[in-house]
UniProtKB/TrEMBL annotation:
Organism of provenance: Asticcacaulis benevestitus DSM 16100 = ATCC BAA-896
Gene3D superfamilies linked to this entry: Zn peptidases (3.40.630.10)
GO BP annotations, alphabetical order: proteolysis
Residue ranges of domain Peptidase M14 in the record: 30-306
Phylogenetic classification of the source organism: Bacteria, Pseudomonadati, Pseudomonadota, Alphaproteobacteria, Caulobacterales
A GO molecular function held by the record: zinc ion binding
Entry similarity comment: Belongs to the peptidase M14 family.
Signal peptide boundaries: none
Protein's recorded name: Peptidase M14 domain-containing protein
């Protein structure tokens, strides 16, 4: 386990400068290929959905087009349901789950809801299995109008015409062992702060918005996912990742304060999923299936509230 004192980049207690950032970038090796893994699946869906290119990232020698898929027969009288995945590129089932939902389940909602899905918000992070973007920024803490992360800014721009029209937004994530072995120590090192070890929960959980809690919505999702994979129990202090458990499988964050993805549309029903792919009790397919179950349960619930 790394600590801020032993993280191989930077000096303890000193925030990174450009030299440390350059060193960090040099060690981020491409481990998978967005153009081969993700884009062909999006292209294959173009017969059923309108594919929108909503931005392009240009990082050194790498460029990535950002894609969203929209219901082909968009009806302005219907509610809008938004699904986002891959905000943290390393969280694989967020990407695969969003795509699998479109491939296997989205058709049953035709004529009932307008769908918009951004399956891989951070392709540079996807390729390098990393939480951050090229600039060592966390996209899911930079969803604000003046934010420095281009992945976040592009999604905000795409969705700005829909502000106030989105009924539900579900953002698909994972909590992994690498959060403690790499990403939280890296964050402490980057910011020149002390690293305090945490505990990785074994199982699925949700993050509700503490400023707009929707407990029945969250529990409908947890109940559906529980048929697919196990739900994370709290630790000995009654917490999950340092936050008090407010209900079975649910914690809360101040979404707007943290500039998280689920705060960008003003949707009344929002949640962030967290799947645990490193559990000995789960498989990659199970994690992806859990994300699909969460999306379906979220849409099913909000349709009953109309």
């Amino acid at each position: 386990m790394m600590t801020a004192a032993t993280y191989p980049i930077g000096l303890p207690g000193t925030p990174w400068g450009e030299a440390e950032l350059d060193t960090w970038r040099q060690h981020r090796i491409r481990l998978r290929n967005y153009a081969e893994d993700v884009v062909p699946r999006i292209d294959a869906l173009s017969a059923q959905f309108d594919v929108v290119t909503y931005g392009e990232l240009n990082y050194s020698d790498d460029s990535y087009r950002l894609f969203a898929l929209r219901s082909r027969d968009w009806n302005p009288t219907l509610p809008v349901a938004l699904v986002t995945g891959g905000v943290h590129g390393y969280e694989t089932s967020g990407v695969t789950g969003a795509l699998a939902f479109l491939e296997t389940q989205a058709a049953k909602y035709a004529g009932r809801v307008n769908l918009i899905v951004a399956p891989c918000v951070s392709p540079w992070g996807y390729e390098r299995v990393n939480r951050w973007n090229y600039d060592a920024l966390d996209p899911n803490r930079n969803f604000r109008a003046d934010g420095p992360a281009p992945e976040s800014a592009a999604l905000i721009q795409l969705l700005s015409p829909l502000h106030g029209q989105v009924l539900m937004h579900i953002d698909l994530h994972e909590t992994t062992d690498s959060d403690e072995s790499e990403f939280r120590p890296a964050l402490a090192a980057r910011d020149g702060k002390d690293y305090e070890p945490g505990e990785i929960p074994d199982g699925f959980y949700l993050v509700d918005d503490s400023d707009n809690p929707q407990p029945e919505f969250q529990q409908a999702i947890v109940t559906a996912v529980e048929a697919v994979t196990h739900i994370a129990p709290p630790d000995a202090h009654g917490n999950i990742i340092g936050s008090p458990l407010v209900a079975h499988g649910v914690i809360e964050y101040p979404v707007a304060k943290y500039a998280m993805c689920t705060g960008i549309t003003g949707a009344p029903y929002t949640t962030t999923t967290e799947v645990y792919p490193d559990s000995p009790r789960a498989s990659p397919k199970e994690c992806s299936d859990a994300q699909v179950a969460a999306v379906c349960a979220a849409i099913d619930y909000v349709l009953t509230q109309i």
